[in-house]
Amino acid sequence: MALPKFTCLDCGKTFIAGDYMCQTGVKHRVETKSYYTADAPTVAEWRDGRPYINKAIARTYILNVPPEKMITENGEVRRIPGGTVEFVRGFFETDDPEVQFYLDRKEGLCDKKRWEEVYINDDERHQIKELELRAREQRVVERENELLASVKGKHAHP
Ligand SMILES: [Zn+2]
After folding, report:
1. CA geometry: angle at 84 spanning 38 and 61, to 5°?
2. How far is CA 88 from the centre of its chain?
3. Whether pTM exceeds 0.70
4. Three-state SS at 154
């Protein structure tokens, strides 16, 4: 598989995976990408005498992203420890192309739709629906105003 290409937001350069340095010690920065995991937390706390899973504080760590690597510096081999990615509520976003590269290849992540099913509770679902409805109403009103304006315009300039 060909290595993916990225475009840096800072220097504008197009580069391939593996070539992450923008300037000495500073990585290229790319368009932010979002990642989701449906790995819901299973540790329940007690609320009102009932077990309750607090998804708001859910943390999922993915270790070794980017993985540990060896670099040679001034003729000496040095070990760079791997990174850790922290998903909060099953969500993580990054503009680091190296992290994106590895998360794009990571098993066990899911798409936004699945994530919403797992993480968004009924209240939030309701709120989102309400917002969507309101936005739709707003568009209808705008459309009507446009039509009205165009009708008036025709009358003014027959
Ligand atoms: Zn750059």
Report:
1. 30
2. 11
3. no
4. helix
pLDDT attached to residue 40 = 59
**CA 9 / ligand 1 centre spacing (Å):** 7
**Phi (first) and psi of residue 99, to 5 degrees:** -65, -40
Amino acid of residue 132? E
Report the candidate in 66, 137, 123 with the shortest Cα–Cα distance to residue 100: 66
Count the Cβ atoms, other than its own, within 10 Å of residue 100: 22
Cα-to-centroid distance, 68 and ligand 1 (Å): 22
pLDDT at 114 over 70: yes
CA atoms within 13 A on the CB side of 109: 19
Please tell me the distance from the alpha carbon of residue 46 to that of residue 48, in angstroms, as a whole number: 7
Q: How far is the CA of 20 from the centre of ligand 1 (A)?
A: 8
Buried b (16+ CB within 10 A) or exposed e, 123-140: eeeeeeeeeeeeeeeeee
Distance 26 CA to ligand 1 centre (A): 8
Cα(19) to ligand 1 centroid in Å equals: 10
